[in-house]
Amino acid sequence: MLSQRLQQALGYTFSRPELLNQALTHRSYGSANNERLEFLGDSVLNCTVARALYDAFPDLPEGSLSRLRANLVRQETLADIAAVLKLGDTLRLGEGELKSGGFRRPSILADALESLFGAVFLEAGFDEAQRVVRGLFDPLVAKIDPKDSGKDAKTQLQEILQSRRLPLPDYRLVNTQGEAHDQSFIVECVLIQPALSTRGVGKSRRAAEQEAARLACAALEK
Question: pLDDT averaged over the chain?
Answer without folding.
Answer: 91
